[in-house]
Design brief:
The protein has about 110 residues and is of the alpha/beta class. The protein contains four helices and five strands, in the order βαβαβαββα.
Length: about 110
């Protein structure tokens, strides 16, 4: 399974109402570090399918979501549980650190 495309119209359903934790990757096409972690995010989506929902938010397309969560630099990874942010990581974070943060919240 690949990462879901999250935007203002499906955020409530896919993230807030999710029964399982959600990892959201806030980024943009033009962002080099975002492109670097893109494949890692897709790998995590496949490896943790059914345990964690993984989504990507394009900050250029979903500016209201980026503003709502005070995204100042990209990539920013947020982990939601029960509709609330439980973890935040900024920058091109290594896969093992992302998995460590997810596993501590699941």
């Amino acid at each position: 399974m690949s990462a879901l495309h999250i935007n203002e119209s499906n955020f409530e359903e896919e993230v807030v109402k999710s029964q399982i934790p959600v990892l959201l990757d806030f980024g943009a096409e033009w962002c080099g570090p975002c492109r670097m972690i893109g494949p890692i995010i897709e790998e995590i989506a496949g490896e943790l399918e059914g345990k964690v929902k993984v989504g990507k938010v394009n900050v250029d397309e979903a500016q209201n979501l980026a503003a709502q969560f005070n995204i100042m630099s990209i990539p920013t990874l947020l982990i939601f549980k029960g509709g609330e942010i439980v973890e935040q990581m900024v920058g091109a974070v290594p896969k093992d650190r992302i998995l460590e943060k997810i596993n501590s919240k699941v």
